[in-house]
Input
Amino acid sequence: VQLVESGGGLVQPGGSLRLSCAASGLTFSRYFTTWYRQVSGKERELVARISPATGTTTYADSVRGRFTISRDNVKNTVYLQMNSLNPEDTALYYCNTFVEGVQYWGQGTQVTVSS
Output
């Protein structure tokens, strides 16, 4: 199983980015997939989650209304659309899923929001 994130970068406050998490070795639509983020020295924070099958979504209070998690079952990819970014969103963003009790993580993609 491999998860590969992409789409991070430097963006100005108020800007947007779309992160992607592509999976190999598993089918995303069968499992919960979660985006986390982490700032150095702080605990990893759950950002958004999408459920299998129905695609029900949940969000951290800090991003609700600005971020959208979605899934493309054909491409086996999960996305995180991030709008109205602010400097507090600066972090390393990780994709996560768990299969039969085993956690899988991508390598992370850095998002920096700065003018």
